């Protein structure tokens, strides 16, 4: 297990209940941080699980819910040192067959929701004159195009654009803003995408899994830990001279 010491640091992680977000929550807890995990799948507004972990219900697709939730988090936990935007979703269809409502749903969570969380917590950090780290979980889909993922790819390109602007604007406040671009990670979202993509392409989920592995130079898809390790590095003092970066964690699949 890899750990760095983040004792006395408070981290907010959206999408912390499942997949990559869950891995990030775990590694930050192991490093000693106090973690507020926020997710649509939690039942309670704000619940202490133990002295270190707090769970909080948030619907990132609704701006009024983000307002309510962020006020609550700032009241209960104060201004965080680390914010990780990991919640995300996808829909699958070729662009010419896709529905506007799917496009809007994906953008509302992956781009607009992330922007609002970003904005509220960055403002709180600036007002408190607190240095900090903001880490966006984007995707290699923010750099490339993938079939049947028009809305998702566009929403992740938006995240990388915003990351660069926020990095420049917040540099003087010593708030470092970076994005992580995972490749193919074994999570519930990826398993659903293989089933939905398989229907569109006339393939089984197993065939798509084999295709996925064949496209990765390292020869395997990622586990959530592979991504969480890089988030931990970005959250730690080891990344003190990095901002505005979009770091690939793709097993070599994306190199730009
Ligand atoms: N799995 C991959 O291959 C992969 C690759 C690149 C990037 N990503 C990105 O990583 C992030 C996490 O994806 P994952 O694969 O772990 O997916 P996941 O489905 O396992 O987890 C996503 C989490 O986000 C939460 N969520 C969804 N909608 C929400 C909303 N409206 N409000 C609050 N929370 C909401 C879900 O409840 C879930 O806990 C996403 O941003 C995704 O785009 C995933």
Automatic annotation (TrEMBL):
The keyword Nuclease does not apply. InterPro entries: NAD(P)-bd_dom_sf, Sc_DH/Rdtase_CS, SDR_fam. Keywords: Oxidoreductase. It holds the Pfam family adh_short_C2. The keyword Transcription does not apply. Gene3D superfamilies: NAD(P)-binding Rossmann-like Domain. Belongs to the short-chain dehydrogenases/reductases (SDR) family. PANTHER family: DEHYDROGENASES, SHORT CHAIN, ESTRADIOL 17-BETA-DEHYDROGENASE 8-RELATED. This is 3-ketoacyl-ACP reductase.
